[in-house]
């Protein structure tokens, strides 16, 4: 978590939530992890504050007294680019949520564990940090001792064998390789590579990973592999090289 | 807005009934009108016996007068007759010579060419016919214009006026027929719709209206289908609500028991577990209701079943501790079908979990499949005890747990119901078959046709 702490440090978060107990709990939890948390309980004052002061992230319930979370989001989007995570106790029916969350960066169905909330918050903040400070991409930058990355072709090769990755798979593999041995949360991978919220029952990322594994195996790559960290995400692990 | 092309309605349409009814109406109207008119004219074309008697009597008087006083008698009689009846009248012999002192004018002579005997028809309506009555004892006759009061045509206009009401009468009859054919069914429909809106879910239009082949018949059928779907939906949701409250009571009562025992550590563990159970119950139930009642359209894409199984068994392996080799896949690499990735993943995951739960300690859950028609039929097969043939459909009903000896087990019996709904929403299907031993859950999906 030390890497996370860098961009979490002193990030200002506005929480708009009408359930006082949950709100207090969120403030306590995030506050203890170095975030500066502002708490409001209705949509109107929340919107006013979000427009008046700079925040790094908005955490907002959909069903709020007065102005609903979706209205706030619409108004806010016309003026501010601040990332927004929506929370709600509505069912997690995928289509409906996808329709609701147009413009939101992430969606968190209630009830959720605080640890899950933290993962989502960190994922969004980390993506924003990436956007502000893009790291030099591509080229044969020595990401891997064996694989050669071809940015133009969006593919990797081992010696003369091309893996035949799709652009999404390429970006995913590159991101994982940039952070070898660091567990990348699914929430962050969705944010960074697929540019959308991670919802329950969403298998798209898992399928991409499965394709990457098979394609790397087919070209005979064996110095590292993508491991599943169950309940958390994926990590790229180096395997001990054969003597 | 694109306007629909006017097309002729189908041959069972009410349109044709209306056309036939109107054509019949027109034919009937024209036919009856002409027929009745002729009838009236014919009925008024003959002199009645009474009139004949009156006229014969005049002739008798004329003959007597002429016999007694010659032309002077004829003059006197004719004058009286003309005054009394206000008509033209003459008396002539067989050579058309006047018997009175006045000779006949040319005009009168011409008129003598158009005279009718008493038994003849009075001729076309409108004219005033001239009749002759022969004398009984001489070759002479009385010729006179038929007085209006004796003319059988005197009421003709009245009768013909009455005939103008014929369209009204026929329209009335046609109106009654059309009303009974078209509006009475609508009244029935309205009555049933009212009963339905009052909460009587068993309200149906029923036969004989639903047997009709026209638009009203299909409307009645649509109504009955709607009412049926409404009823089954409400019954389904009531059942679901009952089952769900029952399922919720189980974890709640367990928590209550642990709470009363006062062991905080144990309570904490229990709480975490039971909250997760209740959460899953609620989200699965909502999901099922959503799938069943809203029937969302799931976007279809090419899904690589081999890779999907690989992903799913990875998760299942973590959850259950089964090694991957106990979940083999006997499919050709890259076996790809048309489906919705997330929906299909959820369905297969539910089936896989169910299979693992009912497997013996060292069992194997196998995915097989074969191309069939324009798609694939896949089969997820376990080595558990299987299900009695008559129970094979029941396992897809929500909250069905066949094995009552697994109280508080992991499932609520929602998994297979969700799986089936998911498959059906993607244009596929899912059903169960008995293996030897074990249960086979099969599902069908369509091929993807790649265009390179």
Description:
The complex is a heterodimer of chains A (243) and B (452). The model of chain A is unreliable at 1-5 (pLDDT under 50). Chain A has nine helices and eleven strands. Chain A is of the alpha/beta class and 243 residues long. In chain A, α6 packs parallel to α8 (186-194) and α7 crosses α9 (204-218). In chain B, α7 (264-294) packs parallel to α10. Chain B is rod-shaped. Chains A and B meet through α5 and α9 of A and α7, α8 and α9 of B.
- Structural class of chain B comes to alpha+beta
Low-confidence stretches of chain A: 1-5
Approximately what portion of the residues of chain A adopt beta-strand conformation? Answer: 15-25%
Give average pLDDT of chain A, whole number: 85
Most extensive interface: A-B, 21 and 19 residues
Across the major sheet of chain A, the strand order is 2-1-3-4-5
Gross morphology of chain B is rod-shaped
Largest sheet geometry of chain A: 5 strands, parallel
Brief account:
The complex is a heterodimer of chains A (243) and B (452). Chain A has 243 residues and is an alpha/beta fold.
Attribute tags:
heterodimer; A: 243 residues; alpha/beta; 5-stranded parallel β-sheet; 9 helices; 42% helix; elongated; disordered N terminus; B: 452 residues; alpha+beta; 10 helices; 10 strands; 52% helix
Topology summary:
The complex is a heterodimer of chains A (about 240) and B (about 450).
Chain A: H1 2-8, E1 12-16, H2 20-32, E2 36-40, H3 43-52, E3 57-61, H4 69-77, E4 84-88, H5 94-100, E5 106-109, H6 114-132, E6 147-150, E7 155-158, E8 161-162, H7 167-178, E9 184-185, H8 186-194, H9 204-218, E10 224-229, E11 233-238
Parallel strand pairs in A: 1-2, 1-3, 3-4, 4-5
Antiparallel strand pairs in A: 6-7, 7-8, 9-11, 10-11
Helix pairs in contact in A: 3-4, 6-8, 7-9
Chain B: H1 14-43, H2 49-85, E1 89-93, H3 106-111, E2 115-116, E3 130-134, E4 140-145, H4 156-163, H5 166-197, H6 215-261, H7 264-294, E5 301-304, H8 305-320, E6 336-339, H9 341-357, E7 366-372, E8 375-381, H10 415-425, E9 429-434, E10 439-447
Parallel strand pairs in B: 2-3
Antiparallel strand pairs in B: 1-4, 3-4, 5-6, 6-10, 7-8, 8-10, 9-10
Helix pairs in contact in B: 1-4, 1-5, 5-6, 6-7, 7-10, 8-9, 9-10
């Amino acid at each position: 978590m030390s890497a996370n702490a860098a961009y979490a440090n002193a990030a200002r978060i506005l929480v708009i939530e009408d359930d006082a107990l949950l709100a207090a709990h969120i403030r306590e939890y995030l506050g203890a992890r170095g975030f500066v948390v502002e708490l409001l309980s209705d949509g109107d004052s929340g919107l006013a504050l979000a427009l008046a002061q700079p925040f790094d992230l908005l955490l907002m319930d959909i069903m709020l007294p007065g102005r609903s979370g979706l209205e706030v989001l619409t108004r806010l989007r016309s003026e501010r680019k601040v990332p927004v995570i929506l929370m709600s106790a509505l069912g997690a029916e995928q289509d409906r949520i996808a329709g609701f969350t147009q413009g939101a960066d992430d969606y968190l169905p209630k009830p959720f564990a605080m640890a899950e909330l933290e993962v989502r918050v960190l994922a969004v903040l980390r993506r924003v940090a990436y956007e502000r400070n893009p790291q030099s991409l591509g080229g044969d930058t020595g990401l891997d001792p064996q694989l050669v990355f071809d940015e133009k072709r969006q593919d990797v090769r081992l010696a003369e064998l091309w893996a035949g990755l799709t652009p999404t798979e390429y970006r995913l593999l590159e991101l994982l390789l940039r952070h070898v041995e660091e567990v990348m949360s699914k929430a962050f991978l969705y944010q960074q590579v697929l540019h959308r919220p991670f919802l329950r029952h969403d298998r798209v990322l898992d399928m991409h990973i499965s394709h990457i594994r098979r394609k790397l195996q087919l070209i005979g790559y064996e110095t590292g592999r993508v491991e599943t960290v169950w309940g958390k995400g994926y990590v790229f692990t180096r395997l001990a090289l054969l003597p | 807005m694109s306007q629909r092309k006017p097309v002729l309605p189908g041959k069972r349409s009410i349109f044709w009934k209306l056309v036939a009814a109107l054509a019949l109406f027109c034919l009937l109207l024209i036919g009856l009108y002409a027929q009745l008119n002729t009838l009236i004219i014919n009925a008024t074309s003959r002199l009645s016996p009474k009139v004949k008697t009156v006229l014969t009597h005049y002739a008798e008087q004329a003959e007597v007068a002429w016999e007694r006083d010659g032309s002077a008698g004829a003059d006197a009689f004719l004058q009286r007759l003309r005054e009394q009846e206000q008509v033209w009248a003459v008396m002539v012999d067989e050579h058309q010579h006047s018997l009175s002192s006045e000779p006949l004018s040319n005009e009168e002579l011409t008129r003598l060419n158009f005279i009718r005997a008493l038994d003849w028809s009075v001729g076309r309506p409108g004219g005033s016919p001239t009749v002759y009555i022969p004398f009984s004892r001489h070759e002479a006759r009385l010729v006179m214009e038929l007085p209006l009061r004796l003319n059988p045509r005197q009421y003709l206009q009245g009768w013909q006026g009455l005939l103008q009401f014929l369209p009204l009468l026929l329209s009335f009859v046609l109106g009654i027929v059309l009303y009974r054919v078209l509006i009475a069914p609508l009244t029935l429909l309205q009555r049933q719709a009212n009963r339905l809106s009052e909460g009587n879910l068993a309200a149906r239009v029923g036969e004989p209206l639903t047997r009709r082949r026209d638009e009203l018949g299909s409307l009645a059928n649509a109504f009955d289908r709607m009412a049926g779907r409404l009823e089954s939906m409400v019954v389904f949701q009531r059942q679901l609500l009952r089952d769900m409250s029952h399922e919720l009571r189980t974890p709640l009562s367990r928590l209550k028991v642990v709470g009363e025992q006062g062991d905080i550590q144990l309570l904490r563990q229990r709480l975490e577990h039971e909250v997760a159970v209740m959460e899953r119950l609620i989200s699965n139930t909502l999901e099922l209701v959503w799938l069943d009642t809203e029937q969302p359209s799931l976007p279809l894409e090419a899904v690589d079943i081999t890779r999907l199984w690989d992903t799913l068994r990875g998760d299942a392996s973590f959850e259950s501790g089964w090694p991957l080799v106990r979940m083999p896949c006997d499919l050709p690499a890259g076996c790809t079908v048309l489906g919705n990735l997330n929906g299909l993943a959820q369905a297969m995951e539910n089936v896989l979990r169910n299979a693992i739960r009912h497997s013996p300690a060292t069992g194997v859950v196998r995915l097989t499949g074969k191309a069939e028609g324009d798609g694939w039929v896949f089969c997820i097969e376990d080595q558990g005890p299987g299900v009695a043939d008559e129970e094979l459909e029941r396992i897809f009903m929500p909250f069905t747990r066949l094995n009552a000896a697994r109280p508080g087990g992991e499932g609520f019996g929602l998994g297979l119901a969700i799986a089936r709904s998911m498959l059906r929403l993607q244009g596929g299907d899912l059903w169960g078959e008995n293996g030897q031993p074990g249960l086979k859950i099969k599902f069908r999906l369509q091929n993807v046709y790649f265009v390179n």
